[in-house]
Write a structure and sequence with these properties.
Layout (H helix, E strand, L loop, with lengths): L19 H5 L6 E5 L6 E2 L14 E5 L2 E10 L11 E8 L6 E6 L12 E9 L2 E8 L2
Antiparallel strand pairs: 1-2, 1-3, 4-5, 4-7, 5-6, 7-8
Length: 138
């Protein structure tokens, strides 16, 4: 998909060994979140070791489904060319309570976004980055 995130139209994230799977998994259609195979918890943003048991974390594909936990509608264009208004939200992923991805809600007028609304991931590709965006779930 070629849609660009309205919140960061030309900014690419700083990628490193830990977060590269998150930013590139969408190129294959996968939302990859760091996971502990020992205690079965997800951790985001990614860190080197599990926050519970200190085991190494590995990227694991999640469903990409979740709910809008909270959000804000932004009307300030913080960068040149930024389209406003846009919705910036904390999306609680379905796999685990309190597992959040911060992103934009797209495909719906900002005034129609509601807390607890079901959403699913879609990706906007810029260069070698696949931004996870969220749209209303059917």
């Amino acid at each position: 998909m070629s849609e660009v995130s309205p919140a960061a139209p030309e900014m690419l994230p700083g990628m490193d060994q830990l977060n590269r799977p998150f930013w590139t998994g969408g190129l294959n259609g996968d939302l990859l979140i760091a996971h502990c195979d020992v205690c079965q918890v997800y951790v985001h943003p990614p860190v080197p070791r599990c926050v519970t048991c200190q085991a190494p974390l590995v990227p694991k594909a999640v469903s990409g489904e979740g709910i809008v936990a909270t959000f804000t509608v932004n009307h300030q264009p913080w960068l040149p060319g930024m389209q406003v208004p846009y919705v910036f939200a904390a999306i609680e992923l379905a796999e685990q309570r309190n597992l959040y991805v911060l992103s934009n809600v797209v495909g719906i007028p900002p005034e129609d976004v509601k807390a607890r609304m079901k959403v699913r991931v879609r990706f906007a590709t810029v260069a070698d980055v696949a931004y996870p965006l969220f749209e209303p779930a059917a």
